[in-house]
């Protein structure tokens, strides 16, 4: 299958930091279909050779284990092309169409790696130039909108030009190997599904913790905040994968229909429940990995009086028969104690304990970061001389060890899926809008009350109020158990 992959924003950070390295890995793993061309478009004048040199230099900043040798890079670079484009000029789109038509590849994937405020205008121009025919797919990178109205407006324009089947909305968390394994764990194994419900599960915790601060992205981040940056998309997508009903097939729409139902079943927030069930925080100076780091207000391009949240913890419920009454706790933050993304499923204790240590309940930990894995926490008898005492033990599955040669990164997986036309791991417009609908009352309550922005020391696990939120139900975050 021949393909053309076009990156709008071809010299931008996302392209050289994430997308090109991911494509290179796909190339190195022999997974990139033969007969492909990769075209970067951007505003300035460059030749193909100059663009290849630009990417070669950027690759030297990438993780050394992933860095190509000169010979490997040269083979990859032969796929790279560059075209100058002024995104406001219809003639430049016509020129792009000509470039694509001249070869007539089976598929053209147009990846919008530009600032999202340009998406509607670019889509309209693509439509006007006839670059929306049925061989074209468009990939849209987050953030898709700032609130419900802006997300709806982007989707309205995208839908007026492309069909839903042509629109690939990226949430890179869905490309993480552990997230795909969650589908396999639940729907390819008979073991867990009968227990996957309120009768056996006490609570579920989703933590997306980062030890990094906002770095050089202060201006973007300050307009965004943790709720929009991580909860509205990544955390809610993970929640849908955990809570969804088994889809009837493994097709994109069967899966996305089920995920949408979960989003629609989330308990809606009111101004009052936001005060009770949502904690927002901002990091102050502290210590991370033995180094002292500045507070959020001291970061570059952050206003000194900013009230932007860098941490959110919240409690919600999925209001349906399967999950009624089970708390779902979501938490994310910058400058926390560790880079650690995981989902913890806490099971209920045994109904009638006959061993002294039976207070420990089973727990399944789905680890997304820093490594991918699964841990099942059980109780076991240690051996002779221990009496009836049981000890907690862990069954540990490390996916890197289980499948050492087949691991692919999130962007690599998603780019290959977009080229192959597989929509399963992309977000449909109605899911995305429903997620905005659910977070909006939180944004409104914060704007109206201006209340309760807590601070936390960099390197900690967030404000004390986040622990209190969970303790109120008699529970504790994983690291406090
Ligand atoms: C992005 C957010 O979507 O995800 C960033 O905009 C965040 O702020 C990043 O750092 C986290 O992704 P990952 O894969 O490093 O956990």
From TrEMBL:
GO molecular function: glucose-6-phosphate dehydrogenase activity
Annotated catalysed reactions: D-glucose 6-phosphate + NADP(+) = 6-phospho-D-glucono-1,5-lactone + NADPH + H(+)
Pathway as given in its UniProt record: Carbohydrate degradation; pentose phosphate pathway; D-ribulose 5-phosphate from D-glucose 6-phosphate (oxidative stage): step 1/3
Function summary: Catalyzes the oxidation of glucose 6-phosphate to 6-phosphogluconolactone.
Keywords noted in UniProt: Carbohydrate metabolism, Glucose metabolism, NADP, Oxidoreductase
Pfam families per UniProt: G6PD_C (PF02781), G6PD_N (PF00479)
Protein name: Glucose-6-phosphate 1-dehydrogenase
Domain Glucose-6-phosphate dehydrogenase C-terminal: 183-477
InterPro entries (alphabetical): G6P_DH, G6P_DH_C, G6P_DH_NAD-bd, NAD(P)-bd_dom_sf
Domain Glucose-6-phosphate dehydrogenase NAD-binding: 6-181
Residues engaged in binding substrate: 172, 176, 210, 229, 334
Recorded family membership: Belongs to the glucose-6-phosphate dehydrogenase family.
EC category: oxidoreductase
Record EC number: 1.1.1.49
Positions annotated as active site in the UniProt record: 234 (proton acceptor)
HAMAP family in alphabetical order: G6PD (MF_00966)
UniProt binding sites for NADP(+): 43, 86-87, 142
């Amino acid at each position: 299958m021949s393909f053309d992959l076009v990156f709008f924003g071809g010299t931008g950070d996302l392209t050289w930091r994430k997308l090109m390295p991911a494509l290179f890995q796909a190339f190195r793993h022999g997974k990139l279909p033969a007969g492909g061309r990769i075209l970067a478009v951007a505003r300035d004048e460059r030749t193909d050779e100059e663009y290849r040199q630009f990417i070669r230099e950027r690759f030297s900043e990438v993780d050394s284990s992933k860095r190509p040798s000169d010979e490997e890079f040269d083979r990859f670079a032969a796929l790279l092309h560059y075209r100058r484009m002024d995104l406001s000029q219809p003639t430049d789109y016509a020129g792009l169409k000509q470039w694509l038509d001249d070869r007539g590849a089976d598929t053209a994937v147009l990846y919008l790696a530009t600032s999202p405020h340009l998406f509607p205008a670019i889509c309209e121009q693509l439509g006007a130039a006839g670059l929306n025919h049925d061989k074209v797919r468009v990939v849209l990178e987050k953030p898709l909108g700032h609130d419900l109205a802006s997300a709806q407006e982007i989707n309205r324009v995208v839908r007026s030009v492309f069909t839903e089947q042509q629109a690939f909305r990226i949430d890179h968390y869905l490309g993480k190997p552990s997230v795909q394994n969650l589908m396999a764990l639940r729907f390819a194994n008979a073991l867990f599904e009968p227990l996957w419900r309120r009768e056996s599960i006490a609570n579920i915790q989703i933590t997306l913790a980062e030890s990094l601060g906002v770095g050089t992205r202060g201006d973007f981040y300050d307009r965004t905040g943790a709720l929009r940056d991580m909860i509205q998309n990544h955390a809610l997508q993970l929640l849908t994968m955990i809570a969804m009903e088994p889809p009837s097939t493994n097709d994109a729409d069967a899966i996305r229909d089920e995920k949408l139902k979960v989003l629609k079943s989330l308990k809606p927030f009111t101004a009052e429940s936001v005060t009770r069930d949502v904690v927002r925080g901002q990091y102050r100076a502290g210590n991370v990995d033995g180094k002292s780091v500045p507070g959020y207000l001291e970061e570059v391009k952050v206003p000194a009086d900013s009230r932007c949240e860098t941490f959110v913890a919240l409690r919600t419920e999925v209001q349906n028969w399967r999950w009624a009454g089970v708390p779902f706790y979501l938490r994310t933050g910058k400058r926390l104690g560790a880079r650690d993304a995981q989902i913890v499923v806490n099971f209920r204790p045994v109904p009638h304990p006959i061993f002294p240590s039976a207070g420990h309940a089973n727990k399944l930990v789905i680890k997304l970061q820093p490594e991918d894995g699964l841990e099942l926490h059980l109780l076991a008898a240690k051996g002779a001389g221990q009496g009836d005492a049981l000890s907690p033990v862990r069954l540990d599955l490390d996916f890197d060890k289980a499948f050492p040669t087949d691991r692919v990164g999130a962007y690599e997986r998603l780019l290959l899926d977009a080229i192959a036309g597989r929509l399963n791991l992309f977000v449909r417009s109605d899911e995305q809008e429903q997620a905005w609908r659910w977070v909006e009352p939180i944004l409104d309550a914060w704007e109206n009350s201006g209340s309760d922005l807590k601070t936390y020391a960099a390197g900690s696990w967030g404000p004390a109020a986040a622990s209190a939120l969970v303790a109120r139900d008699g529970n504790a975050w994983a690291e406090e158990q």
